[in-house]
Specification:
This protein is mostly helical. Helices cover about 75% and strands about 0% of the residues. Among the domains are: about 80 residues, Serine Threonine Protein Phosphatase 5, Tetratricopeptide repeat, CATH 1.25.40; about 100 residues, Tetratricopeptide repeat domain (Serine Threonine Protein Phosphatase 5, Tetratricopeptide repeat), CATH 1.25.40.10.
């Protein structure tokens, strides 16, 4: 209050002094430019300058406030668009969860440019396109996802490989995963997906080469890893093409005791022409550890010494007189030795113990070859499996028909 009175008093005193000066001597100002001249008093000129100065300041102040208002308006509009885009993204994700792929894709793509994380929109839209069967659209959306977010190349590539696998595009997914592996050789998910792709492609050698890294990273538990390892070596033995022994030598020792691998190795030996080696291998394993699959395989190996096979199999029969698989093998080995009656007896005994398509087939074609066509035909009707090529009684045209059955 006192300050206000003081300011008023100062203003009154200054006004009085200025008024006195104006009355005593108004002054003179002349402004001349070319043929033009402007005359006025000093005090009027000063007052005019003061008003001009204040007017200029006012204009600049108005312009500044106007710019701030425009900025606030732009900011408000951007905030509003961002909020709407986020709401649309949530709506699109909900539609994805409901399986409404076309609507989800449309909404997610439309709102991608206005959200702060367009990568999520494009990746989700790519999944929707994949579900719609639009591979080209899927790949285009994945490209946009990569371009929208720096540093997203690996995540986008992983998603692409996953969708390619889901669509059965195994070669394409393999190419994608190999590129990812070159950038991240030890990434667990890449290694897992590569194992799956190699299995689907039956590309066993690269899978075997990958097993060391998989084991080192402990990606699988022990049981799952051993199952994968066994599957890989079984597949590789099935593709041995004459190098079965070389493949077998590379198999870890703990796997060589597994009889399914022994059976695969023996089958590969037979396929490669090493029949004697296969016979010795299977006979040696069966003398130590009994296995039905190996027994069945032993009956299919047509070696150069069928008498030795007969002696070995009959020695096993003493301990397992009611084993239908061993009896089937003995019947086949009897055919290799040309003992038709004994073969028929073994087949009939096996059939009484267990009715299997293989026994029906063997007994049926033997009966036909021996001239018992009626009974042989009854047996062959129930034979639904392929039979190995084995010696049959000669002198019957029906033999060939029975063998083909």
């Amino acid at each position: 209050m006192k300050l206000g009175l003081l300011l008023v008093a100062v203003a009154v005193v200054l006004g009085g002094l200025i008024g006195t000066l104006v009355v005593r001597d108004p002054g003179y100002v002349l402004i001349s430019y070319g043929d033009m001249a402007l005359e006025t008093s000093l005090w009027f000129a000063l007052i005019t300058l003061a008003f001009v100065y204040l007017a200029v300041r006012l204009v600049f102040w108005i312009l500044a406030r106007s710019g701030q208002s425009t900025g606030r308006l732009g900011s408000w509009l951007r905030t509003r668009k961002g909020r709407q885009a986020r709401q649309q993204t949530v709506q699109g994700l909900l539609l994805m969860a409901e399986g409404q792929w076309a609507d989800a894709r449309k909404i997610l793509v439309a709102s991608a440019k206005e959200v702060g994380t367009p990568l999520i929109n494009y990746l989700s839209a790519a999944r929707a396109a994949h579900e719609l069967g639009d591979s080209a659209g899927r790949d285009e959306l994945l490209r946009r996802a990569h371009e929208s977010t720096p540093g997203s190349r690996f995540a986008v590539g992983l998603t692409q490989a996953e969708l390619q696998m889901d669509g059965g595009q195994w070669e394409q997914s393999l190419a994608t995963l190999l590129e990812l592996k070159s950038n991240a050789p030890r990434h667990p998910q890449v290694l897992v997906m590569l194992c799956q792709v190699y299995q689907q492609l039956a590309d066993w050698q690269p899978l075997i080469e990958l097993l060391g890294e998989v084991k080192k990273r402990r990606i699988y538990d022990d049981e799952a890893f051993h199952a994968l390892q066994r599957s890989a070596w079984l597949g590789r033995l099935g593709q041995a093409d004459g190098d079965a022994t070389a493949v077998w030598e590379r198999i870890p020792k703990e796997l060589k005791r597994q009889q399914d691998l022994v059976a695969a190795y023996a089958s590969a030996l037979v396929a490669g022409g090493a029949v004697e080696e296969a016979e010795v291998l299977v006979r040696g394993v069966l003398q130590q550890d009994w296995n039905d699959d190996l027994v069945a395989l032993y009956g299919r190996i047509v070696g150069s010494n069928p008498e030795r096979q007969m002696l070995a199999a009959e020695s096993w029969l003493k301990e397992r007189p009611n084993d239908p698989i061993l009896l089937l093998a003995l019947g086949r080995i009897s055919l290799m030795n040309g003992e038709w009656a004994k073969a028929r007896e073994y087949f009939e005994t096996s059939l009484r113990l267990q009715r299997s398509p293989e026994v029906y087939g063997e007994l049926g074609r033997l009966c036909v070859a021996l001239g018992d066509s009626e009974r042989g035909g009854e047996y062959l009707v129930q034979a639904t499996v392929a039979l190995p090529e084995l010696p049959m009684p000669e002198g019957s045209v029906r033999q060939e028909r029975g063998a083909q059955a």
